[in-house]
Design brief:
This protein has helices spanning about 5-10, 170-185, and strands at about 15, 20, 25-30, 35, 40, 45-50, 55, 60, 65-70, 70-75, 80, 85-90, 90, 110-115, 115-120, 125, 130, 135, 140, 145-150, 155-160, 165-170. Strand 21 and strand 22 form a beta hairpin. About 10% of the residues lie in helices and about 35% in strands. The model has no long low-confidence stretch (mean pLDDT about 95). The longest helix is centred in the C-terminal third of the chain and has 14 residues, at about 170-185. It has about 190 residues and is mainly beta. The strands form four sheets. An eight-stranded mixed beta sheet has the order 2-5-8-11-16-19-21-22, with no helix packed on it. A six-stranded parallel beta sheet has the order 1-4-7-10-15-18. A six-stranded parallel beta sheet has the order 3-6-9-12-17-20, with no helix packed on it. It has one domain (about 5-185): UDP N-Acetylglucosamine Acyltransferase, domain 1.
Length: about 190
C-alpha cells in the first residue's frame, strides 16, 4: 500500500486522510483523481482519469474494477464497487460515423463522452457494467453481472441485463448507522 507521502507525490487532485491505495493498482492522470477520506483502491484496479474522477469518503473499489471512457465519474460517499466492475463514461460510436480504435487519430473517430454518477450507499455487485450517461441513485444494489444502461432509482435492488428493479431496500437502518459512524469517526 502507498504511504500518504507517496500519494501526495503522485499528484492527485486531492488526497483525504486515511486513504488506502494498493501498489498494484494502475492510476492514470492522477491530477484528475480526487480521493476522499477513508477510501480504498485495491490491487489490480485500473482508472484512466481523462476527466475528473471523484471518489468520496469511505468508498471501496475492489480488485479488477476499471473506470475509463474519458467522461467525468463521481462515486459518492459510502458506495462500493465489487470485483470486476466496469464503469464506462465514454465509448466509440459504432454506427459508422468514424473509425473505432484509440490508436486512430481523434479527427477520424466518433467518440461519445458523458458521465457516470454513483450516489451514496450504492453497492455494485461483482462484474456490474455501467454505461455512459447513467446515474445510480442512493442506496441502490446491483446483482452480479448486472448491465446498467439507464438511471436507477434510489434504494432498489436491480438485477439482470439490462438491470431491472427486483425489490426495494430499506434505508432507515443504513442511514442511522451512517450517523453513528460520523459521530464516532468524523467521516
Amino acid at each position: 500500500m502507498y504511504m500518504q507521502s507517496e500519494l501526495l507525490e503522485m499528484g492527485f487532485g486531492y488526497v483525504g486522510k486515511d486513504v488506502k491505495v494498493f501498489k498494484k493498482s494502475s492510476l492514470i492522470n492522477c491530477c484528475n483523481i480526487f480521493l476522499g477520506d477513508g477510501c480504498q483502491i485495491d490491487d489490480f484496479v485500473h482508472i484512466i482519469a481523462s476527466a475528473p474522477v471523484h471518489i468520496g469518503r469511505r468508498v471501496h473499489i475492489a480488485c479488477f474494477t476499471s473506470i475509463a471512457g474519458g467522461g467525468e465519474v463521481t462515486l459518492d460517499d459510502y458506495c462500493g464497487l465489487s470485483a470486476g466492475c466496469r464503469i464506462i463514461s465514454g465509448t466509440e460510436n459504432f454506427m459508422g460515423e468514424g473509425m473505432t480504435n484509440p490508436c486512430i487519430p481523434a479527427k477520424f473517430r466518433s467518440v461519445l463522452r458523458s458521465f457516470v454518477t454513483i450516489r451514496r450507499h450504492a453497492i455494485l455487485g461483482t462484474n456490474t457494467i455501467v454505461y455512459p450517461g447513467v446515474t445510480i441513485d442512493d442506496g441502490v444494489a446491483t446483482g452480479a453481472g448486472a448491465v446498467v444502461n439507464k438511471d436507477l432509482d434510489a434504494w432498489g435492488l436491480y438485477m439482470g441485463a439490462p438491470a431491472k428493479r427486483i425489490k426495494s431496500r430499506p434505508s432507515e437502518r443504513i442511514l442511522e448507522l451512517e450517523k453513528q459512524l460520523i459521530a464516532e469517526y468524523g467521516y
